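Escalated from tier 1: iron/sulfur cluster holo job.
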Amino acid sequence: MAHEDCEVLYSQLAARGVTRRDFLRFCGSVAALLGLSETMVPRIAAAVESAALKPRVPALWINGGACTGCTESMAQLGSPDVATVVLDLLSVNYFETIMMAQGEDAEKAKADLAAAGGYVLVYEGTVMTGFDGNALRVAGKPQTEELPELCEKAAAILAVGSCAVDGGWVAARPNPAEGIGIQQFCEDHDIATPIINLPTCPVNPEWVVAMVVDVLFLGGLDEQGKVAQALVDKLDDFGRPKLIFGQTIHDNCPRRGHFENGEFVYEFGSEEEARGYCLYAVGCKGPQTFTNCPIVRWNEKATWCVEAGAPCIGCGNANPLSAGGNWVDVGAPFLNRLPDLPLSDTTTVQPAAAASVVGAVAAGALLVHGIGMKAAGRMDGGAPYEEIRESDRKKGGGR
Ligand code: SF4
Ligand code: SF4
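Tier 2 regenerated the structure:
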């Protein structure tokens, strides 16, 4: 790319107080999120530079039943910020929560986009199918009336946040508005547009930016403007990018050593909490939640839930095609500890059991790891686990 062409992007960045060094650091973090080596950083930089010279990619951001927390999360990207500049390379013609246009002008912008097709549809919130779709009316009609066409004509759908993925808390029991995720809605209407699911409540904005770079600038769309098979192959069975949702919170948690030692917090405000012990006994769902929150972190990488002292409540869990399988129905009450740790599809165990009978548990990695920990003496002398159930009982749990 000609030097002067690069200047188009760099002058945009400079106007926001972002240096070239910031930009390259950003490209490095996108590469890490996409599982690419550092040698790909120049290619990512070149792709973004080149996108700055092309017509902007049309995008449509619509809300179902939502608290708009995901929009708010995106606003926490920070400004000036290189990620904001990248998002500016999208032409978001319709964004219900923050756009200036209202009424007929806004609806016309949406209709024009739908007629042209080939846009990226960002869906935030729960699809409200209840009361014949009247649970959510937009511009005087049920949203479910216009949604099939909007989904059908999109090049790709980015489901941001747990509500968009599987209904989230909006669809939690008893779910009177019959909320579902956008993937379920597309299945019900035989719509085959590729969907990338990004759960958590709210969505982590860094994942959204990485997906925008992957889909739009790194060849995620083929020549027909449809999502390329290579990108679809990067998704897991729940439509989530494997690199972001491929490891548990527990795998990367800085409190993991305390878990292994049997050192748990049983009560907030206790000495154990002050020592930073493991939060499993007060409900941490980290062992069963697949996201890279401990690595990517939140609020401009300032911190994340467990580091801030709260148990992971499992908002990254998703079940796009299973009604009642959202993270709230599965994980509440949040401060009750999980009944068991899954070792495999059919075997579960409690941590104390793992510590005391680990030699007899014939199950995979935890067995091998546990034997090593036991041999090293790290499972002896930790805080007792099963004996202390009073705090669970007080919370109405004790499962
Ligand atoms: S149970 Fe939670 S707090 Fe404890 S190590 Fe695992 S993720 Fe960290
Ligand atoms: S750490 Fe757990 S509760 Fe916190 S955002 Fe990540 S998945 Fe959600």
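The longest helix spans residues 20-33.
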